[in-house]
Amino acid sequence: MLFNSLSFIIFLVIVLILYYSKIFNWTNQKRMLLLASYLFYAMWNPPLVILLWISTIVDYTAGKKLAVLENQRQRKFWLLLSLFVNLGFLAFFKYGDFLLENFVMGLNAIGMDFKAQPMDIILPMGISFYTFQTMSYTIDMYKRKIEPARTFLDFALYVTFFPQLVAGPIVRAKELITQFYEEKKATTEQFLWGTFLLTIGLFQKIVLADTLLAGTSDDVFGSGSILHGLDAWTGTLAFSGQIFFDFAGYSTCAIGIALMLGIILPDNFRYPYAAIGFSDLWRRWHISLSTWLRDYLYIPLGGNRHGITRMYAALMITMLLGGLWHGAAWTFVIWGALHGIYLVAERLLRNRIHIKITTWNGILVALLTYFCVNVTWVFFRAREFSTAWNMLGSMFGLNEGEKILQTFDILKVFTVILILFICHWLMRNTSMKAVALKTSPVVLGVVWAVLFVLICIAQGSGEQFIYFQF
Amino acid sequence: MTNMQLKTSFSIALIISAIALVSWELYWRSQGYEPTLDDNKHLWAVERAKVDELLADDVVITGSSRVLFDIQLDEFEKLTGKRPIQLASAGSSPLPIFHDLVEHTDFDGTIIVGVTPALFFSTTFPQASPWQRPQTRVDHFHQRTYANRVNHWLSIPLQKNLVMMSGHEEDADENIDLKGLLNRIKLTERTGKPQYPPFFEFGTIDLDRNVRMTARTVEDTAFANVIKNAWKFILTRGGPSPDVEGTTNFFVADAKKFTERGGNLILVRPPSSGMFKDGESKFFPREKLYDELVRKTGAKSYHYEDYEELKNMICPEWSHLSAEDADIFTRVIAREMIKDKALKKTN
């Protein structure tokens, strides 16, 4: 089920009525939320709920064992079992075809004539998100960082909680499970702020991503032609805005919906396009994934504890795997590699050049960061390397290409992106809540109405969120 | 957060939104817009799903927009006692949908295939528009989720009652959603390519996909000329040559498979006029293409030129019949089908 759909509106209204009616005690309310979450997922593909159940049962059992076992070998067994099941699901469902394809290419490269039928495996929606979430639970249990979930119901709801089930934020057990232990009801202010966040999120998705930017991005990346530089830049900028509004929109909706239920989810985006450098970018973009990768990959790989070379290697491996997390294609690996190179280069430069960041040079560095990020988006969006190289060739003036965009499309994209950048810059050290607190309720009401009316006028054809495929 | 006075903000937002949306709806109604259903992939998939429940004496129609406009389901049902399932798709080659019916159903009743020569004999290339459009619908039917079905079901009352919710799946110049309105803004032209002239919907569709031409298309010649201009653009802009051999072979193979399992195939060639008729006579001569197709498939055939009542019919915008003429066309071909015992009866 998509947040930007009629069925979800009905679903949410029913869930809220049941949640706030006095017919259930807290345990039964949690059961209702769990059933609703399964229904939310099953409306897409019912049999794949089984994967959620397996993941839930295995990790709950592993967590319980890890809480009581003292024998290190036995503890390691339960940890490995959890990792094997979760990573096994990912390997089979997400990377099965990719692995097979590369295996065949490898054999062909050494002269063996081998062909294999693609397995055409369906990719379960949100599998990368919920497997990472449940793995964090067993790893934290193994490291004795957290207490086990008190009940199976609490754990199952942690794995399946519908607002963040399919596209995050990837929430840690200590942040979410503990909230299920005691009855939660949103205050009126929380409920209304959650509704406002839901409106903001839908506006980002339906109006900004789908209506204003997606068409231009699709036209450019799907043209199959070598393009004029302006068209290539417009398409890439459009995609940079589209993916931000799409994903940040989903996260904002998720946070808002959870808040309407009295549950607090962490921020996932903090105005990333105003980032000054790449370390700053990854503290602002998909925060729940970048902190997950930091805690469960970069630090176990050694982090910065074993010298500079090992640190850079850990950084590169983390970013390469982070790229692969996004999709089973080499273009995503290159996207990750570029971010890894940027981070390494930034650390190298930081040791040699010391600049005091002011407003003006900060804007310049932020623009430079955004420019470099756009180069990486080309690999992220292009389905094939040939498309990516053609796009980059056009963007850097190496191609005399075809003009496919109309003047208004270009103007539209540049206007949206300029406003996006200015907003991110102005908001980089504050939050929406802080700004709302300073805003008069009348102005906030008018803004709210404008956003809502534009959502209704845009209609939206229920386009899927981009991150569902990851 | 207690200082935010969100109740006030929420109340203001609610009042302004209500006023703005009611005004928006009334404004577009005052401009002559009426709520209409969209002939989208969801509506198509609902009809396609019915095929799996059909019996051997049932009838399915597929083809391009001509057979969608020209065979009227009510008239057909009155005469034959059977209400066909309408699966024709505008701007489409009938081949992908017929292929899906042959390959992915056990249906062994009657399939009426409408032949619009320029589309039927166009291509078998999957990325070409006449193939991709119907294939998208077929793919959607096979991949649609329960959420898709519920969303469609919930959208029907909104589409039927609100102008602002009755946009079209494809970009059309009368779309009043935000994207459609932005698409109307034209600044300087920079691509150097000829731009598609304005195009508007000229039919209305029912829940079971029965399409009737609007009275405006018949009565308002200026409006009909806008549609004719769009056809003229398509006919004169050039493009890939028709793949007569490839399309014929593809269809004949599917037709053979369908008839071998007991299916009953009927080909129908609806009328055209004006520039369309001239172009079709010149580039798609009946004897070489249509008659050859009938011969190769062994299908029963109903060509409008063979019937006195039909051969001089005028299409208001050169390609589709007015609602009244579509009723006549349907009555004539249904009568002939009954006379020929062309439709399957189980008992």
For the largest interface, the chains and their residue counts are:
A-B, 49 and 45 residues
Note the beta-strand portion of chain B. Answer: 5-15%
Helix content of chain B: 40-55%
Q: What proportion strand of chain A? A: under 5%
Radius of gyration of chain A: 23 Å
Structural class of chain A: mainly alpha
- Write the element-wise H/E pattern of chain B from the N-terminal end onward: HHEHHEHEHHHHEEHHHEHHEH
Mean pLDDT of chain A: 91
Counting DSSP H or I runs of 4 or more residues, the number of helices of chain B is: 15
How are strands sequenced across the largest beta sheet of chain B? 2-1-3-6-7
Low-confidence stretches of chain B: none
> Tell me, what is the CATH class of chain B?
Alpha Beta
Which of globular, elongated, flat, extended, rod-shaped describes the shape of chain A? globular
Task: Fill in the keyword field for this structure.
heterodimer, A: 470 residues, mainly alpha, 2 domains, 19 helices, 0% strand, B: 347 residues, alpha/beta, Rossmann fold, five-stranded parallel beta sheet, 8% strand, globular
Task: Give a topology summary.
The complex is a heterodimer of chains A (470) and B (347).
Chain A: H1 6-20, H2 26-42, H3 49-68, H4 72-94, H5 96-109, H6 127-142, H7 152-160, H8 173-176, H9 188-221, H10 229-260, H11 278-282, H12 287-298, H13 308-326, H14 330-352, H15 359-381, H16 385-395, H17 407-427, H18 432-438, H19 441-458
Chain B: H1 6-30, H2 41-51, E1 59-62, H3 65-70, H4 73-80, E2 85-86, H5 95-104, E3 110-114, H6 117-120, H7 129-143, H8 146-161, H9 178-183, E4 203-205, E5 211-213, H10 215-219, H11 221-236, H12 244-260, E6 264-269, H13 274-283, H14 290-297, E7 300-303, H15 323-339
Parallel strand pairs in B: 1-2, 1-3, 3-6, 6-7
Antiparallel strand pairs in B: 4-5
Describe the structure concisely for a colleague.
The complex is a heterodimer of chains A (470) and B (347). Chain A contains 19 helices and no strands. Chain A has 470 residues and is mostly helical.
